[in-house]
Specification:
The structure is a homohexamer of 232-residue chains. Chain A is α/β, with parallel strands linked by helices and 232 residues long. Chain A is built from 8 helices and 8 strands. A 4-stranded parallel β-sheet of chain A has the order 2-1-3-4, with helices on both faces. A 4-stranded parallel β-sheet of chain A has the order 6-5-7-8, sandwiched between helices.
């Protein structure tokens, strides 16, 4: 089974981290292919960055489709271009926000999302409203760190995230935490150990859930919304 | 007051129709500027077309911002790239779906949307869910006509739309109808006359609503979600 | 174009302020007609006041209809008697709560309402639930001032409102603020300047939105819910 | 225990039917007091009639409060003026729509409402949305009969209602039916027998539910929304 | 009229308190029959306890049905096994959570629930979501006391509950309070007096509401969801 | 990795079919353990059957926990006892309804569920409401066949299911179909081929999704709702 994990921003170090994360959880026999959305913004912080990343993301998907990929993970927590990807893909396509919050809803009755910047909070709230999980989402919080700070070795990003999770447990009475950025994937195990509750990283979960759907022989529906694009 | 009305697809005849429609309703003293998203797909029929149109749409918005535009209408019923436009715009930005369904909710307790192709139905349903108006939307129907058929003089598009509206009144018991495509704008008056109920075209309504917001001195909020894009 | 702006309470000083506000934003060629609901309570603070104001409000609407008014604004944030007004009106009818929260939802992903008394908070929450915008409304707050204190020159009402807005920005992380009383209309510009976020006054917005609907040739639907009252 | 059952329209024959219905179900020791909203419209068919009935309804409530009534039923399915009544009442106040749909939700997982005229359908849908029971309400149907036809001995109203209920069972797969007009109260037993499913009349249910609340020592909350009207 | 009030846990002292409460509010002519779910857990604190209590609860219901009971109250705030009870019952069946929150929604625009342990909070939130009353429920709070502490004479349970209610009034701005455990029934009058707002105990309210439904001749629907169990 | 797949009814032929299905999709290295809820009803058709099956189901879970199982699938579409299982389990627990509808929501914008008997329709609708996916579920349909007919070689169950799916595509305009009974698992591939849309079987999907969660190192949250049962 071949799974494409695309990083929709153009920061290669992030792609490497994402591929490592996906490989760590992938089943035996599953081949993880990474891709970086060349020409996309260096990080996706808001609607504009997201919109500008999608054409490059779609090129990655097209290329992988040509090579017969079985399923696709879009590794940015804003779930950019998912509908468009689903139109051009044959197999399942999952964004890491959708995968992570749906996983959280299976492990706990409530969860809080901890993301990077305040400007991403309403974006994520809207996604969760669309996924129908607002009633299980206690709150979307930001740790007030830019996405790329997660890539800087000396930054205090991990401490700030841990503190925000501890506040979430205390103030939101949440039972699980979802990490709201692909760049946090490498902190998952440590954060879970420190806090004692499920800490969910979308990259791992999306990789394994796409595997799950492919393993059941399921593909993206090709009638109506996700039918292949009309030829003009 | 200067208002930009962008056609996010690349079909110039559609841009002309949209500008005419906007000019027909614009108040004295309001200058309507049209723009076509060059390089975008010829019509927007689904998520892929939508995603591919947004960068060109954003260029139009950037250019208009540089010239000091006061407000912006995005003239495609899928409301593409609205969040991204709002980040780079100073004044209000409105998609024609949002404008039309919110107008409908002010004139009637329920409405039905009549759009072009079946594949657009779930896209529009999702938008309306996001706008919080699912409880007033009886149904989203398609008249089963491709977007560009609306531009062909000899097509029977207008009859099919009229028939679909008549079915909506009968079967959905809706009190108003929203036209689910910018390309239907020129049929509004005729359809309203034939059916006796409010028939709402998003291009006109969005133009006048942007005018309304600008006229009240209102601009897009610049904290959090719609703050200007971060410089990388 | 003739627009009626009715004050559903009987305080003439409030009517004057409302008319001034509406005139300040009205387009050239639009004639604003004010009316006071004679015999109604001096202010509308709760359901009882609201109910007692409606027959007088409906008389104002009837009179304006007889003179061929094109659209109507009901200038009380509890949106009293809107359905009844719509039944007897030909053109569009808008309450200032509906207009303001729908405008807010176009300029920001979230907003907080600041109203006068605590007793009005649940009334407004219920309206917003009905308009489908609960998911964008962070909170309805009261500045703990009686409606008529807004008319007293020496009161500290404006300071209390400013402070409440500042708390809303801090605690609710809202991106815009809606003023929850027609009597606050004259403070809008000042509050917006002080806070740097969109501050939305329903009187202005409703006036321009009714203009917008009339300008598009739209009228209140006359089938089902808003059909003319049955003759007994 | 003294319970007021107010008919908010001015048709005395309807008041008599309502009192009879309430008396039929009232517990021993409960005294049912009837009242007619003098000066109100002869029937309540839509928002305008409703608004015009409320001041007269409130007078009936005031008078009963002065005589120490324990609880109040407002016997019109549009639940007119309930909030206002609750402000001036000491004991519980129930509208027959709220009582009936909440009762239905206790006896079945889904119900359909059968009302008189099409124009009342959206009014009732909105009430049910406000009561939070849209997910249990299959549909609101009208039997296409004017309210006062229910008072005419020779009309075929009862047959039309029966037929509409039979269609509801067949098409809506509902498990219970709520009668959407106080004037249908006398048909309940017959309709239930004919159809074999629970047929719920709001007048009976509201009377007994008010009894229930009074019997538990419960009164309307007097903080915030239902506090007594402010003295001006 | 015969009403069964079942305690789904096996603690007899709790059954006695529940029967006393039900008897205190029951109308003249109503005979309250108590039952204890023998073999069930000593208290119901979470999903496991709840599941383990249901078969014993169903035996109590079966036995009462055989003796011709008219209506049934399930006296645990988690509303265990209600659907199953409704399938085997002829008359109405009410859980005390459903009864209490629906009663609260008739007396106030908002309420807070105060329950025993934190682990029950999400259980109750989910119930309220299912009953459609999330928009009126300000918050579900726990007083951090185990269920059986309510049975210990010397515990400070009542003080902790009072304090939690006072916090709810202050912080949640709720207008009524629902007691989230059958074991709190005896504190209702005292708590209501201390706080001045409606304090609602589910046991009393459910008893009188079942009475109300029976008194109107209403029974559980026997088509679809609550039809008698299929014989295997 | 060890995964328990429990059949909560007592029909062994169904357990065998379920185990086969789970084994067909399980990854290399995953060991599927089947269990039958001994003493439970022969099939689960409604709330009563469901309630009576849960204690036996919980025994199976307890036994598997003692042997160190990693994750659990509850293979009945009514998702019986999931909360209780989660309290006593260490790893993830998934019901097949939750797994299937969440999978469907990843592959299509809308789906219809096809179940066995009409009485199960409202049960499933309620589950989907709780999972937050009502807005993507077009309809829950029944093919009007008893659960055990699926086990009879000569029955025309598969044809009836195919016909119901074809009606769903035509009338509901759904983009995917979810099979609403564990007993339909063996028909999935055939139905998908016949209809050309994704047909989703909960047993396969739940097995692979539990694998996915376990593979990511995720376990059921042990604070609040799913904490281990309190010792009495």
């Amino acid at each position: 089974m071949n799974i494409l994990v695309v990083n929709p921003n153009s920061t290669e170090s992030m792609t490497r981290k994402i591929i490592e994360t996906a490989n760590r959880v992938a089943s035996a026999g599953v081949s993880v292919h990474g891709a970086t959305a060349k020409g996309a913004p260096a990080s996706i912080e808001g609607h504009f960055d997201e919109a500008m990343s999608v054409p490059a993301l779609l090129s990655c998907v097209r290329a992988a489709e040509d090579e017969g990929v079985d399923g696709i993970v879009v590794a940015c927590f804003d779930d950019p271009g998912i509908g468009a990807c689903r139109e051009i893909a044959t197999g399942p396509v999952l964004g890491i926000c959708e995968a992570a919050v749906k996983a959280a809803s299976m492990l706990a009755t409530s969860f809080t999302v901890v993301t990077t910047l305040p400007r991403s909070v309403p974006v994520i709230e809207r996604l969760i409203h669309g996924y129908g999980l607002s009633h299980q989402c206690r709150r979307v919080r930001s740790a007030e760190i830019p996405v790329l700070a997660l890539e800087e070795p000396g930054s205090n990003a991990r401490e700030k995230i841990l503190e925000e999770i501890q506040r979430a447990i205390e103030e939101d009475r949440c039972e699980a935490v979802v990490l709201g950025c692909a760049g946090m994937a490498d902190l998952t195990a440590w954060l879970s150990e420190e806090t004692g509750i499920p800490v969910i990283d979308g990259v791992s979960v999306a990789t394994r859930m796409v595997e799950a759907l492919v393993g059941c022989g399921l593909k993206t529906s090709k009638i109506n919304a996700y039918a292949r694009p009309n030829v003009k």
